[in-house]
Amino acid sequence: MASTTTTSPLLLLLAAMAVATLVVAPASSVDLPSGFSSITSKIPNPWSAFQDLTGCHFGEQQQGLAKVKDYLSHFGYLPESSSGFNDLFDADLEEAIKVYQRNFGLDVTGAMDASTVAQMMAPRCGVADVINGTSTMGSGGSGSSSHLHGRNLFTYFPGSPSWPRSKKRLTYAITQTSLTSIDRATLSQVFARAFARWSAATTLNFTEAADDDADITIAFYAGDHGDGEAFDGPLGTLAHAFSPTDGRFHLDAAEAWVATGDVSRASSDAAVDLESVAVHEIGHLLGLGHSGEPSAIMYPTITSRTRKVDLAEDDVAGIQNLYGGNPNFKGVAPPATSSRDMDSAAGASSRPWTALVGAVAVAAGLVVAL
Ligand SMILES: [Zn+2]
Ligand SMILES: [Zn+2]
After folding, report:
1. pTM of this prediction?
2. Where would you tag: which of 95, 102, 131, 350 has the fewest CB atoms within 10 A of its CB?
3. CATH for 40-121 (3.40.50.720, 1.10.101.10, 1.10.3720.10, 3.40.50.1980)
4. Which residues are catalytic?
């Protein structure tokens, strides 16, 4: 995983990347069965070792805590350490974990309890949750728009960068695909659908272009690819994207991406839905940071074998606040309070909520069944 010394400057400068989606986790992880840590170990990921630290708390010294500090530093919860982190559970770590727990709606214990460890191991976007020590996934009620009921937890990058208001048509190019086995035509369809989720809610339009001069460039890379944000193999960080008007969107070529068909039925337990991750990353490309609203596309984590492609009210409020709304946008379905069956936005493709509900069920099943 990226070392802290190389990652942060980039984050501060470019503000951003991101990925994935997520959905499921908070509610289900809070009530994890006691054996959850051993269950998750069956899907190896770059952060699997965190489960060995379950129960660890302030004052303890345990091998592996330095990696937790690297993780929290990477996502903005701890400042970098020029000399490297140690394995002591100190006050700074306790405080960082508390902020992390607040952001993800977990019990604020300041300790590596089972729910926190499980959340930390979830596949996620590589973009930091806390940038410049300020953005905190809206958990403080930072949403400036109050025309919608409920909490607005969307965030922007520091300074709220966006594409120029006069530029309504943005182009994107798929520039680097040699490391993925997904064919070009399929990629074009997946990314077009992902961009359409955002154009439906705003006055922005997106067109695929053939060259690198496009406003947005989409590329599949493996490991270190030159921007200080090395990818880490299956699961872990899935992708990242930079804030406006950088335009770079990178995906980890090592993921078991699913571009067609029902991801919840994928053969690999580590399968990740490409379109779901793309919708999230495009949010970053347009200027949205991470949201603490679990139903939001801009929530930082996503569970494998899960599809989550519909903008939630929180996403719509955030993006319309930045670019204005599409008069033809019919809005998102009323938020489901007892379940997460958010329907799709207007014009969205048809598999919407049944797919999401199914995915959540499968994800929940994964927790219990694996
Ligand atoms: Zn993200
Ligand atoms: Zn990158």
Report:
1. 0.79
2. 350
3. 1.10.101.10
4. 281
Query: 80-99: per-residue pLDDT in tens?
Result: 999 999 999 999 999 999 99
Residues 6+ apart with CB under 8 A from 128: 11, 16, 74, 75, 76
Report d(CA 208, CA 259) in Å as an integer.
18
The closest of 231, 254, 252, 235 to 45, measured between CA atoms, is 235
Can you tell me the distance from the alpha carbon of 325 to that of 341, in angstroms, rounded to the nearest whole number? 23
Cα of 145 vs centre of ligand 2, distance in Å, is 31
Instruction: Tell me the C-alpha distance between 261 and 273, whole Å.
Output: 9
231 CA from centroid of ligand 2 (Å): 8
Which ligand has the nearest atom to the CA of 281? 1
Class of domain 155-323: alpha beta
The domain limits of the chain are 40-121, 155-323
Whose atoms come closest to the Cα of 290: which ligand? 1
- Which ligand sits closest to the CA of 126? 1
183-241: pLDDT as tens digits:
999 999 999 999 999 999 999 999 999 887 999 999 999 999 999 999 999 999 999 99
Which residues, by Cβ under 5 Å, contact ligand 1, an ion?
18-19, 125, 127
120-151 per-position pLDDT tens digit:
999 999 999 998 877 678 764 444 443 444 67
